[in-house]
Amino acid sequence: MSKLIYLSKSDFRIAKSCPTKLYYKKLGYPQNQEENYGFSFSALIITKIAQLLYKNGIEISVNTEDEDGVISGINETNIKLQEKNITLFKPLIYHQNKLARLDILAKRDHKFDLIYIKPRAIDIKYKPLLRNKKDGKINSIWKGYLEDITFQVYILSELLASLNDQNNQFEINTYLCLPIKDKLCLSCLGSNFSIFSDYESKNKSDYKIEYLGNIEELKKDHILQFINVNREIEELKEKVIRNTNNYLESIVNGFHKIPTPINKNCKNCEFRLDQLTNSSNADTRNGFNECWNHSHPQNDHILDLYQVAKIGEYNNPLINTLIAEGKSSLYDIPIETLDHHSFKTRQIIQIKHTKKNQEWISEQLAETINTWNYPLHFIDFETCRLDIAYDQTIRPNEQLAFQWSCHTISTPTSECINTSFIDISGEFPNFKFAEALMEHIGNCGTVLIWGTHEKSVLKDIYAQVSHYQYDNQRLSLWLESLIFDSELPLDPALNLKLIDMNNLTLKYYFHPLMKGRTSLKSVLPAIWKTNSYLHQMPWLSHYLQRDQSGKILNPYETLPELEIDQKYQVIKDGSGAMLAYQQILYSPFKHDPAIRAKWEILLKQYCCLDTLAMVIIWTHWQYLIAQDYCSNQAIISASDSP
């Protein structure tokens, strides 16, 4: 049997962002998105609630990871649709190379209700719900969802026409199902759900869900709004059909690319692989390189410049003009055009020192570091927001700080010591979290963070202390000393300073392998892969691992897996930590101490590496300062480059 070729909803969505990407997706080119990017347990819960509102619904339960599963799902759906009255969950509809998996399809005689479910909460007091007040056009927030629904309606209409007699008319009504914001605030439904891995699925993100509460009570006062979107579908139909047919032409008779002009939007293409952070990927195909005809400089691309899109006018950025002229090198950018007061200095430093293949460090970095008071505390937080409250003490979408890691250096000659906190009980963790951090850090020293997240979390907790009238004045004063910039401490007993190392990197440090990025996940591998002296340090040596070709791995790629609930798990990014926290809350094994212990190990080893990464970078800065590097900058050894 020939391979089933089809355009799915996810294919349609990615082709809308860039038609050329469809070619890479269908041929399985590697992508650089985090594995758990965009996944939400709230979506599973909202979908389950919607299903519970329909009596005797039948789920089309198949494995869509392989072709046999897809074909089985299509055939089962077509058979079920012959019945006069039926409600299907996750039906697979297919017609002439177009495929979609619907959330809910309810048939009553010749009438069909297509339900499209999203976890995005809506304020039903706002009118019109899906359109702009001024011009009445579809709001951009909802347009993408509505185009996806239109794609589904297009397939369903064609399928029903092919399944039924010409004289048998049918009617399709389409609904967007969303949680109501005000009702979410009154609900703590989360604890009534149990979510567990689907063992039969090959996809790590496939789960099964059970409702443990009273279904009849749920039906009486549920949290969902069903919005009829027939008018919006009709408005979008012509364009969606035209685009769908255009995309189909590129895949049904042999795959070919739909030409798309290259421009500044290619910067964040998911098919642009970064060998610095994706060194363990054996598939070397690179869609981005193919679009740029393999002719661009691999390491010095024009799109790598820091804030490159800000050069020139907003509606006509210089970058697009240069690309149209065939200029794709970092060095094709005229220095005189770098005139943005906030970015110019950093951009010039990047171009200059990338060309020299040379690290750069400012003398001001040493001056800044010398002002830091010991002990030094390098901290990192793991947090989560739950759209649907799990506990009655938690508000929907409230910041939940469930874990911190801190590497402390007490004196200039002290060893680095790691301390951690984790609360995966499901109760509101923030005050325990902050109090434990306060007790560990104490009243003096320098607290180092990377980026703005940690400060934002501390601000949230400070506000929560007031909101919940939590009785700990000492904690309030301690938080104030960290989050409010003041030359004089609000409490004379407190002598704490909060320092953002990301901001210091932007001002005072550059490594060619970082390119235009300053995230912790970019700076660490750049330094780690090109400075062998770090590999000799006993407290770091176990992170030195190589791939089959002998290249040094990013330390995050060396974190070991553990088998949990019949699947091997590892946490390598923030979204993975958030997903792990939700898995602990909703798992039927949440009270199993052995499973909880394994999740704790994975969470701790990841969060620990985040703060250790900050220590490694600080150690390297100290090394460069001691070598008087800022006045005698050496070129990075080619043998050290990855």
Give the key terms.
alpha+beta; 4 domains; 6-stranded mixed beta sheet; 5-stranded mixed beta sheet; 19 strands; 37% helix; 16% strand
Structure characterization notes:
The chain has four domains: about 10-25 and about 40-250, no CATH class; about 265-355, no CATH class; about 365-500, no CATH class; about 510-640, no CATH class. It is built from 20 helices and 19 strands. The chain has helices at about 10-15, 20-25, 40-50, 65-80, 140-165, 180-185, 215-220, 230-250, 285-290, 320-325, 345-355, 365-370, 430-440, 455-465, 475-485, 500-510, 520-530, 530-535, 575-585, 595-625; strands spanning about 60, 85-90, 90-95, 100, 105-110, 110-115, 170-180, 195, 205-210, 225-230, 360, 375-385, 400-410, 415-420, 445-450, 495-500, 510, 560-565, 565-570. Strands 1-2-5-6-7-10 form a six-stranded mixed sheet, with helices on both faces. The protein has a five-stranded mixed sheet with strand order 14-13-12-15-16, sandwiched between helices. Strands 3-4 form a two-stranded antiparallel ribbon. A hairpin with a 2-residue loop joins strand 3 (about 90-95) and strand 4 (about 100). Helix 5 (about 140-165) crosses helix 8.
